[in-house]
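Here is a typical protein record:
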Amino acid sequence: MLKTKGDKELFDIKEFMGNIVRNHNYIFSLIALVIVGRFANPNFLRFSNVMIMMRSASILGVLALGMTLVILIGQIDLSVGSMLAFAGSVGVIVFNRTENVLLTLLVCLAFGLILGLFNGFFVGKLGIAGFVVSLATLAAYRSLTIQLGQGGPLVTKHEVYTQLFRYIGYGQLFGIPYLVLIFIFTTFLVWVLLTKTKLGRYIYAVGSNAKATLLTGVKVSNIQIIVYGLSGMLSGLAAFLFIAQMGAVDTATAARAMETDAIAAVAIGGVSMSGGKGFVQGTFFGAIILQSISTILTSFGVPAFVNDLIKGLLILTAVVLQRLIKRNKD
């Protein structure tokens, strides 16, 4: 980034901008969002307004962190929304019977982990494409969820929820919602995993070139199983936060199509959809950007179907941009 010319060091703006375009292009989306948001609402950047948008993005963001790990190994997980719904449904049942928030959290994490490992087994051990496996389990997990609720919603006990659970979903610390703090802390943990651990290096290696990684002695199948398990756990955490915010799980519709939003957040965040490249902070901002876009469109009175159309276009644009950058680099 710094070039030496005689005794003078010059800032290489071209290299700097190239690095942003290649690795942090979500920054441009963030800038555009701020400009449009300010135009739509002069109070768009008020602290309270920003916190509301971040709280709304937190559950999606946690779900997208799991999707990030899966995409980094060159796979996909279409069942994250169904896993959230199933783990959340079990969580509501456990909470109503025990009135124990900590136990509910552990149960949500455990069931998310089990469902994720189930996906990972078929991908890692049997070599079936993640798209096919998760497409099947998307339907299977949703069916199990509907059976749990017998086709209807599962609702927490109102008086107990109000005293214990609602505080997590709507409480604040120094003006920052607990959901946002949990989202930030979870993002930090995933960042540490990816940048400071051997597993993180293996995740990037598998996504870049699974065959070459296998030749170095790394058990690629185990990495795939672990990653799907982690994605499931994060879906379980998202389920816990979902219960805390909503107080109920509609077994038929809860988190339906949320996997599309998670993929969109990852794509907007600049993570390579072919695997091996990307940063978790991109997903963090991608989720916030996606939620903010929905907020802006709602303020303009745009129909809901247009929101979904824009999400699809954002995913397509992100993938095309990644291809163009790769082609230019090659």
